[in-house]
Amino acid sequence: MSATTDLPPRRGPAGQGLPDDVLAELRGIVGTAHVLTSDGDVEPFSRDATPLFRARPDAVVLPATTAEVSAVLTLATRRGVPVVPRGAGSNLSAATLAEQGGIVLVLTRMNRVLEVSSAELLAVVQAGTTTATLGDTAAAQGLLYAPDPGSRTVSTVAGNVAMCAGGLRGLKYGVTRNYVLGLEAVLPTGEVIRTGGRLWKDVAGYDLTRLLTGSEGTLAVITEITVALLPLPRTSGTGVAYFGTLADAGRAVDQIISDGVLPATLEFLDRRCINAVEDFAKLGLDRDAGALLLFGDDGAPDVVTGSLRRMADTCQAVGARDVTLARDIAESDALLAARRCSLPALARLAPITMLEDVTVPRPKLAEMVDRIDAIATRNDVVCATFGHAGDGNLHPTIVFDPTDGDARVRAEAAFDEVFRTAMALGGTITGEHGVGAAKRPWLAERLGADQIALLRRLKQAFDPAGILNPGKLGS
C-alpha cells in the first residue's frame, strides 16, 4: 500500500507537544533511547498501512516489559495524555494513529516466544512477536498456529488479537479469536490483569479475553498472549480453477460446501486482479478468465488427495474453463503466492491503493462483486476485487493518482456505496480489517444507537479517563 506523504491528513491534528516533566518521567520509565520526539524519529509512526490517514504523535515510547507499560499508562491517566497502542503498524483501518496527539506506545521490543507446549497444545508469546515467528516456532515442534493473515511476516500477535485478524485459512480453522486462550493486559489505569489462561475450557466470569480480542486498543494494552495450537497437518495441496465469470466461481463455491468439503483454502481473484498479479509475478495465470478460484486442503495424504479431486470435479461440473492441481509443494506455494501478492500487484497500478474489506453471506458473494463492478463504473474508478470466497469476505481495492482531479473524492464515494450495499445484502462493513478511523462513520449505522451506547459504557468502565486510543470504536 502506498504511503501518502504528499497528502494532507484526512483526520487528526498534529501533536501539540508533551510537557517537559512528562517527557522526563517517560524517559525514566523506558530509558532515553526509547522515547522518540524528533520529527524524523516520529514521522514513521504518524501513519500505518492505511492510505490518506495521518496524525503526528507527540512522542513514541517503546517499552520492554509489562511493568514499563503499566508505568507509562499510569502516568498517562494521571496527566490525561492519550495513548495509542501499536505493533508493526500493518493494519488497514487507521486504528493505530494518534489522532489526538499524545503517545504512540510501540510494543515491538517485547518480541519473544516464551513457551511452546506440545503436551498442552499452546504457546505463550509477548505482544510484539510476529505471526510468522510464532507459526515457524510452532511448526518446528510439529504444531500449527492456524491464523494466517496476509501480513503474517510483519504483523504482531498482539496486533492480530487487537484487530481479530482473519486470513487465508479462516473457513476451515477460524480466525484469531478462536485461538486466544488467555491474555496479560494492562488497563489504562495501570493495573495488570490476566484473562483466561492455559485451559481450552474455562467459563469462570465474563469472557474478558473475547472482549479484548477485537477491541482495537481501546480498552487495554495487550502484553502477553497464550494461544491454542493444533497438530501440524501431515500434508497439504492446492488447485486452481478458472471461470468465465465470478458468478460461475460462486456456484462452484456453493457446491463445494454443499458436497461436505471444508477446504483449508478457498480464495478468489477477479479478472483485473488476475492480470495485475500476472504482470507482477508472472505465474502463468489465465489472463482471459473472468475469475480465478484457488482451493486447497490439508491433513492426511489420502484425505487431501480425495478432497482436492472432489473440488476439482465440482469446478469442472459447474463449467470451469480449466482446472489444475499442483504437482508438488513448490507449485502449490506458487499458486498461494498468486493470492498473497494481490495487494502489492495492484499497488503497482497507481500511487494510491485503497484496500477495504466487507463481508456478505456466502450465497451473495457473486452478486456483491457484480455490484462492486457497477459501483466502480458509476464512480469512474479502477477497482479490483479479491478475497476469501469460503466465508464471503471481499477485498475491493481502488487505485488512483491523487493528482488526477477529484479521483480521491470518487474513490471515497465508491466505498460509501460499497459499505451500504454490503449491509443491504445482510453483510457487514468489515470482516477482518477492523473499524479504526477509516470506517468509524459507518459504525453507528452497522450497530445501531443502543449498541454504540453500550460500547461507550464499557469503554468508561475500562478507561475512566478516556486516554486509550480515543475516538476509535465509537468512543
Give a concise summary.
35% of the residues lie in helices and 20% in strands. The chain is an alpha+beta fold.
What does this structure look like?
The protein is an alpha+beta fold and 475 residues long. It has four domains: 20-106, Uridine Diphospho-n-acetylenolpyruvylglucosamine Reductase, domain 2; 113-231, Uridine Diphospho-n-acetylenolpyruvylglucosamine Reductase, domain 3; 235-343, 2-Layer Sandwich (Alpha-Beta Plaits), CATH 3.30.70.3450; 349-445, Alpha-Beta Plaits, CATH 3.30.70.2740. The protein has 16 helices and 19 strands. The protein has helices at residues 20-30, 39-42, 66-79, 131-139, 157-163, 170-173, 208-212, 246-258, 271-281, 301-317, 329-340, 342-347, 365-379, 407-424, 440-447, 449-462, and strands at 35-36, 59-61, 83-86, 103-106, 113-117, 122-126, 143-144, 180-186, 192-196, 221-228, 230-231, 235-243, 265-270, 291-299, 322-325, 352-355, 358-359, 382-388, 393-400. Strands 12, 13, 14, 15, 16, 17, 18 and 19 form an eight-stranded antiparallel sheet that branches. A five-stranded antiparallel sheet has the order 5-6-10-8-9. Strand 5 and strand 6 (122-126) form a beta hairpin. Helix 1 (20-30) runs antiparallel to helix 3 (66-79) and helix 8 (246-258) packs across helix 10 (301-317). The longest helix is centred in the last third of the chain and has 18 residues, at 407-424. The two termini are 28 Å apart.
